Structure formats: structure tokens, C-alpha cells
């Protein structure tokens, strides 16, 4: 699982092989893209083009240089040293100017050469287009990686026929393209895309059965790609991390901002309610004071007048009600209390009309009484009469 993740982080899940070859006398490019799905490799697409316009940027490729500038020789030798094999096939060659690749199959050796400038020009072309070259191979050497998977005596590539015996390549010779389809480990591969498929497969599997003098160059290409890949992944991961932090911060800020806003509104409502309550309390306090003062005044005055009125009350009269400054109207919310000032209403019963008349006369002669009005006088029975009188007081000021 960790190896799969590491491979994905390095190369992604797509592997692209690109072969530069010649078709009908014209340079062309054969491309095969493999996609890794779980533990399987599937062919996503194969196409031929005369340029690299269809290749995605920043996606690594495995380059196969197999054009007219590549030379291949086959020699028979018991020698195993690749360098000696190259010099045996190409005496007096200056290897400072050439890349070589040697595919050894028992005692048969296929030596492939190409000038460094020609290979580097192709690599630089891809680099300028921001398409990283991960590694490269020369000629038909990559067919050696497929020999063990092909159950046939020979196969065709884009420009050669390759003879196979007991899983080993025994002959490579130039040949016109013959379109055939090969079944390689469950995948159908056309002969014209055989080398680009081999490049993509080698990129995915990482195996190598040939010897070269450009191992250091391959390491530089791989390290350069890894650094750029890591930098791009780091930038993307860092950007996503920062974006995630900003989103989390935004959600938290928005959440608490809404809470603070709600609390502020609630506080303003509470403050407004408090101010209203304080105002109402002030109003109530004033009214309470006014009522208390009024009640105190009324109690004091009513006690005073009640004492003076009752002191001369005849025995034949029984008082049932004494109301100092009675209300003119019923008390209503929001309305001022209206009192009948300088007035005392007295109700009761009398069993002696003559004594009642004398008592009224006595009251009218008081200097603090303006006059007395009889509001009600009627018989409650044959011996008792109900009465209600209003005593109008003189100016209390």
C-alpha cells in the first residue's frame, strides 16, 4: 500500500511512452498511455502524431529514440563487458559524442548508438514545452523487456522485425511496418505502438535489462523530475492546506461573529427594555408617591373631619359610610384620577327625622362647612330612614 502511494506521489497513475520514429520517410511520434487502476495496468489511449501537441504538460514521459539517426549492430561474443562490446561493434568510435545501449541475450548482443546532441535536442524540445522526460531508450532495445511475455516467434515494431526464441531476442532487422496485434499479459497492443507501450511499461515497472553509458544522465532526469514534482505537489498541498485553514477560520469567525452579533442585538434589546423599565419604574414611583401623599393627606383630613362630624352625632343616627373627597369617575389606566374636592359624603340610617334635621342644622352652622346637601333621604322601614348627605367644606387653603 505504501509502495503504491509512493509511486503515485512520484509519477501519478498514468505512464506515457513516446517513440520518435520514421513513417513513409517522415518523422512521426507514436504515443501509448497506460493507466494504473488498483493493481492493474490498462491501456488508456494510443495515438500517432507528427508533433507533441496532444501530450499533457507536466506529465512525465519515457522517450524512445528510434529514428534514422539511430544505428544498431548485432554481434556474437562471449564478452560481457558492455564497453568492450561497443568498441567491437564500432571500432574507433568517440563515446564522448554518443549514447549507447547494449541488449545482451546470451551470446547475442544488440548495440545501439545515437549522437548525444540528437538525443539532447529532443529532450530539450520536451523540456521547453514543460513535458519532463523521465528516461530514454535507443532503437528497438526495449523489445527485450517484452520477449518473455510474447508467445510468438517474431514481432514487428514500427520499423523492425524482432525474432524471439525461448523468451530471448535472437535477431533485430529493419523492416517495413506490418500491422499486427499482440496479446501481452491480457492487453492488446498494435505493432506500431509496441515500443511506446514498452517505454510506458518500463516506466511503470522500473525494470531494466540493458546496459548504457547514460545512467548518470538518466539519474539527473529522474532527480530533476522528482524535485519539480515534489515542488508542485508541495505548492498544491500547501495551497490546499492554507485554503482549508482559511475556510475553517472563516466558518469559525462567521459562527462566532453571528453569535456575537446575536448577543449584541440581545444586549441592545435588554438595554432598551431596561431603560423602558427604569422609565416605567420612575413613573410608577412618582405615581406611588403621589398616591401615598394623597392617601396620607386623605387619611389625615378624613380622620380630622370624621372626628368633628361624629362628635356631635345624635344617638338616633347610625353612620354606615364616610367618604372624604369621593371619586368623580372610576379609575382607568392612563387616565388622571378625578376627585370631588372639598367634599365629604356621609351615608347612614336615622330613626328620628327631627333629630336628623337638627343635626343638619348644627353642621351648617360650623365655620369649616360651606353648606350641606341632602342627596338621599328615604324610608327603609316604618321606623328607620336611609340617608346620604354631601358636606361641602369651606376653602381648605
Can you walk through the features of this model?
By secondary structure, the protein is of the alpha+beta class. It has three domains: 2-213, Nucleotidyltransferase, domain 5 (2-Layer Sandwich); 241-310; 312-393, General secretion pathway protein M, EpsM (Gyrase A, domain 2, 2-Layer Sandwich), CATH 3.30.1360. The protein has six helices and 18 strands. The protein has helices at 2-11, 82-89, 116-128, 194-205, 215-311, 353-364, and strands spanning 14-23, 26-37, 40-49, 61-65, 71-76, 98-105, 108-115, 133-138, 154-156, 160-165, 168-174, 181-184, 187-190, 211-212, 317-324, 343-350, 369-379, 385-393. The strands form five sheets. It has a five-stranded mixed sheet with strand order 3-2-1-4-8. A four-stranded antiparallel sheet has the order 5-7-6-14. It is rod-shaped. The relative contact order is 0.09.
Secondary-structure element string: HEEEEEHEEHEEEEEEHEHEEHEE
Unreliably modeled segments: none
Strand content: 25-35%
CATH topology category name of the largest domain: Nucleotidyltransferase, domain 5
Q: What characterizes the major β-sheet?
A: 5 strands, mixed
User: Can you identify the CATH class of the largest domain?
Assistant: Alpha Beta
Structural class label: alpha+beta
Alpha carbon gap, first and last residue? 108 Å
Number of domains: 3
